[in-house]
Amino acid sequence: MNPQARVLVVDDDLTVRDVVRRYLELAGHEVALADTGEDALAWIAGNEPDLVVLDLMLPGIDGLEVCRRLRRTSAVPVVMLTALGEEEDRIAGLQLGADDYVTKPFSPRELALRVSSVLRRAAATTSLPDKPLVDGDLRLDTVARTATWCDTELSLTSREFDLLAFLLSHPGRAFTREQLLERVWGWDFGDQSTVTVHVRRLREKVEREPAKPTRIVTVWGVGYRYDTQA
């Protein structure tokens, strides 16, 4: 079982909130609840959740806006709940920094497993070297989990950091999206577009010309490779 984490569940459906709360508590977590985006942001401002389960379709401030505001100040992991068929919203959520998503209707057990997976990845540092990972003007401190580029600290989500650190620690090696899902996300199944979206976000942060990447390059027919700049 994972160490106890504080999880905020944000959903305007009372039944969903109650079911998710019970399953997460069974998994050993402390759970707080909110039914609107406004209440969620107010709670987060006074507390430090380890993870947020966030419904996209909220009254008032919707889930995408909550995620957008959250990412201005926090890298807390976010698992989004989306309706089946809302692919554009799922992609938008990932682009804003969500770490994972589950489509409704969903299995509460699957959601609890996804939450545990995201928490494990957010806490895991043992697979990375203790010394900083450096490539030219890009530097990752794997102990402090901070990244700087051209002496400016990067705002990375936990999953973005994990993906960048993994690729940087295996320079010159091509990985398929499936391999990255397994090695970075810890999934043995899942939507491979998740990897594509995270690569796109990373390129916007570590490439001088994101449309013409020189660090995180596409290997056509395979996946992605990290090329050092030295």
From TrEMBL:
InterPro entries: CheY-like_superfamily, OmpR/PhoB-type_DNA-bd, Sig_transdc_resp-reg_receiver, WalR-like, WH-like_DNA-bd_sf. The keyword Transport does not apply. PROSITE patterns: OMPR_PHOB, RESPONSE_REGULATORY. Keywords: DNA-binding, Phosphoprotein, Transcription, Transcription regulation, Two-component regulatory system. One of its GO terms (biological process) is regulation of DNA-templated transcription. It holds the Pfam family Response_reg. GO terms for cellular component: cytosol; protein-DNA complex. Residues 6-119 form the Response regulatory domain. The modification 4-aspartylphosphate is found at D55. Residues 130-228 form the OmpR/PhoB-type domain. One of its GO terms (molecular function) is transcription cis-regulatory region binding. CDD domains: REC_OmpR, trans_reg_C. Residues 130-228 bind DNA. Gene3D superfamilies: 3.40.50.2300, 6.10.250.690, Winged helix-like DNA-binding domain superfamily/Winged helix DNA-binding domain. This is DNA-binding response regulator. It comes from Actinophytocola xanthii. The lineage of its organism: Bacteria, Bacillati, Actinomycetota, Actinomycetes, Pseudonocardiales.
